[in-house]
Write a structure and sequence with these properties.
The protein is of the alpha/beta class. The protein has helices spanning 3-17, 24-34, 40-55, 57-64, 71-79, 84-88, 93-103, 112-116, 120-142, 159-168, 195-198, 207-216, 233-241, 255-268, 284-288, 314-317, 320-338, 360-369, 378-384, 389-394, 405-408; strands spanning 148-152, 173-175, 182-185, 202-204, 223-226, 247-252, 273-277, 293-299, 341-351, 373-375, 396-397, 400-403, 413-420. Helix content is 49%, strand content 15%. Bound molecules: S-adenosylmethionine.
Length: 422
Amino acid sequence: MHPNALLELCAELVDSLLLFDKPADALVSDFFRANKSLGQRERHTIAETAYAVLRQRPMLQHLAQSGRGPMARRLAILAWAGNEAFLRGALKEEEQQWLKQVGSIDRAKLPEKLRHNLPDWLVEPLKARLGEEQFWQLADAVNTAAPLDLRVNLLKAKREDVQAALKDKGFNSTPTPYSPWGLRLEGKPALQKLDVFTSGQVEVQDEGSQLLSLLTEAKRGEMVVDFCAGAGGKTLALGAAMRNTGRLYAFDVSGHRLDKLKPRLARSGLSNVYPVQISNERDDRIKRLAGKIDRVLVDAPCSGLGTLRRNPDLKWRQSPDSVKELHDKQVAILNSAARLLKPGGRLVYATCSLLDAENEAVAQVFAEAHPDFTLQPAQEVLAHAQVDAEQAKALSDNGYLRLWPHRHHSDGFFAAVWERKK
Ligand SMILES: C[S@@+](CC[C@H](N)C(=O)[O-])C[C@H]1O[C@@H](n2cnc3c(N)ncnc32)[C@H](O)[C@@H]1O
């Protein structure tokens, strides 16, 4: 493809992403579906360039002001994630001059908000929580791309065997530092056609998500509910931990998301999973199971701000109002899910948010209203669930699990674990 044609495609995608009317990953998929002839490398350049614009939008929009021509093209030039010589082939003489001039600007001297590239409303709570130094580490960490983590399905394979099979195909990986189920891949190989993937030996899953399933510690023969199962990333991990025995209900209000679980279930070899579309958290089917369940995982709908490495658009699509609404929804879901538990049963509340409002604040509201639930220190639960005791300590904060991209190199996660008193 001619360099200018590729640059124009980048600009077209940037234009549509900056409308923020749909999630970026869905827009990118639609874009590639509409441009089927693109090769792997071209897709990589287009997607990475567009995501770089989302990550550094304030900085790039500021720098782009000095240029000429359509704004989306200027942004794509500044964020270009492909081969540099190839880009030069796309640029007019005046664009080359402009790019050189922009390149000479010392970005470290620009105002703070152009350097952290976060919306104002997020800065204050994150600085209050982390302090100045860690805030900047976090800002850097969320503005870089995430690695690709796999969870090995221990029903079908051992971690070291999958690692060896990947190596045979030329893909290097290392065991994840905290999760005993995980492998972290070097680069971003296309996995869909590999045997280890098609035969259900691995699923793509961030290490943090694996730790949430570990915290649930679902066991053989138990009755377990994954209350917000979505496409079932955590359901699959829970089902494997149950060794394909007992009963695992996968609830979600979205039938569309539950449909995506089906092919994954087929690959996984699990037959203990029962997907159920519920109308809301007060659905009658939940009432019928009240007091009968051993473990409930509530992987609540949240702002997703812990996944900014993968979903940088979320920082521009969320707002203080949406976070407030989510907080209320999270409390309602957690209250309802808690009714399912037997005495002695375990409740895990989790989000992939960085904000106290969706995490500690929700856990606190729940704890105050439920004296019949006792908080289980995350550190102890993790150590019991095969995570090295020292590492378990590094993952916990005030009795909760707290994962941060800049410290743990996973997505940002929160989890609280309670036991219903006997
Ligand atoms: C964080 S996502 C779940 C991701 C999933 N657990 C996984 O590991 O792939 C939150 C899910 O909550 C679902 N949800 C939203 N409101 C709900 C409700 N009232 N009851 C149950 N699920 C709900 C959403 O449809 C979404 O799939």
